[in-house]
Amino acid sequence: MTEEAAVTEDVRPSPADAARRAVALAVPDPPTLRAALDATGYLTDTGLTTALYLALRLPQPLLLEGEPGVGKTEAARALATVLGSPLIRLQCYDGLDAAEALYEWNYPRQLLSIRLAESRGTALEEADLFSDAFLLRRPVLAALTHPGPTPAVLLIDEIDRADDDFEAFLLEVLAEAGVTIPELGTVRAAVPPVVVLTSNRTRDLHDALKRRCLYHWIDYPDTERVIEIVRRRVPGTTPALAAEVAAAVRRLRTLEIQKPPGIAESIDWVSALTLLGVEQLDQDAAERTLGVLVKYREDHDLVRDRGLAWLVGAPDG
Question: CA 91 to CA 159: how far, in whole Å?
Fold first, then answer.
């Protein structure tokens, strides 16, 4: 190797450094990020934009909390689109363990290899079976081993549904940006992922996890922003219908229903009304399509008791 080649090799940036530079070029400041998110169809405010920007550039995990349907998951999805990176999602649930989040071995393929080796009379060492070729990467490991050039976005969705043991495991992974696989050794991220955690606050998370993360609460957007979101997501929607739906959804959230509707339900409702040719939200249209918006029988009864005229803002409501 020539001296010039050796110097070039010494100054070559690491994958992590190259990824940081790529992110800095893509989103040099919060206004650029906000415009890029807007171009994907995801509308943000200054607070959320800043939180996402800091998660990218510090970098540091970001915990997004808020009611279901306010756009927490979509924030991570839009961020991945801006970066041109994969969104790798881990959906949490009660009983989720580390193995399901990290990896498992492809036992059927291992068994097939054993049988093939036996039929050929060839020797097969244990190391041959527990190699990368037989490793099934689950979301966390897949995000840690993503090669770049920009970091993957690892979405830990509804972390509040997992138990304390999984939360402790996750804290260790986030701190080390790596995991140990007994058969292979320690795997560390060459390009650490951007980590977004979401929570609906069904339970309180431990302080240790919160200390590790940036935090942002996403509230329901105001009526004007709902109108803008709906009209973007359902092309051809008239401003009047979008405004009527936004107002009805806002009224509905004042009732003590089990599942208050979010942005997704508002979009679905407008889509259904548009498909049915409804140009103005009235009691008849609300009656026919209430199941798009309200998902429990008890909530249907509550809405009807309050009155469909009230829901659609009719004068006698």
Answer: 8
Give me the amino acid identity at 33.
L
- Sheet with 153-157: list strands edge to edge: 87-91, 153-157, 194-199, 62-65, 214-217
Residues paired with 63 in a beta bridge: 197, 215
Predicted TM-score (pTM) of the model is 0.84
Structural contact between residues 15 and 147, judged by C-beta atoms closer than 8 angstroms: yes
What is the C-alpha to C-alpha distance for residues 167 and 164, in angstroms, rounded to an integer?
A: 5
Residue-wise pLDDT tens digits, 212-256: 899 999 998 888 999 999 999 899 899 999 999 999 999 999 998
**CA-wise closest residue to 237 among 282, 290, 281:** 281
What H or E segment, with its residue span, contains residue 186? strand 185-188
pLDDT tens track for 49-71 = 999 999 999 989 999 999 888 89
Q: Exposure of 301 by Cβ count < 10 A (0-12 exposed, 13-18 middle, 19+ buried)?
A: exposed
List Cβ neighbours of 270 (8 Å cut-off, separation of 6 or more). 230, 234, 237, 241, 242, 245
| Cα–Cα distance measured from residue 64 to residue 158, given in angstroms and rounded to the nearest whole number | 10
Instruction: With CA atoms as reference, report the closest residue to 257 among 208, 293, 217.
Output: 293
Local structure of 164: helix, strand or coil: helix
The residues facing 214 across adjacent strands are 62
**317 neighbors 309 (Cβ within 8 angstroms):** yes
